[in-house]
Write a structure and sequence with these properties.
globular, 38% strand, alpha+beta, 5-stranded mixed beta barrel, 104 residues
Length: 104
């Protein structure tokens, strides 16, 4: 009986701790320059989900062009992207980022 109870608790714990992948269109930009995040130095990619900004792991801020370009750079403008990933430990672990705002 103790084994069954232990296994039940273990299964429930594991199933509750699974992170759910997020997929939707979000604002994406420089966390420091545009979203006022200050927990890291320099310029780093961030997304804003439900009015809260998170640094992005898995993609570099310059992966989409020059971050300081005055028309399209993440340090200069806030863009829109379809994002997929998991919110984990206060960060967004991105598996996919696709810009959808049409800026070139």
């Amino acid at each position: 009986m103790k084994k069954i109870l232990f296994l039940s608790v273990l299964i429930i714990t594991l199933s509750c701790s699974n992170k759910k992948e997020v997929k939707h269109v979000a604002e994406i930009s420089c966390g420091q320059c545009q979203f006022e995040l200050n927990s890291e130095t320099g310029c780093d990619l961030a997304v804003r989900i439900d009015n809260k900004a998170y640094f992005v792991d898995g993609f570099d801020i310059d992966a989409f062009g020059d971050a300081h370009d005055e028309h399209t750079g993440f340090c200069e403008v806030i863009r829109k992207a379809e994002i997929k990933g998991v919110l984990e430990n206060g960060r967004f672990k991105a598996s996919s980022v696709k810009l959808v705002d049409g800026l070139k």
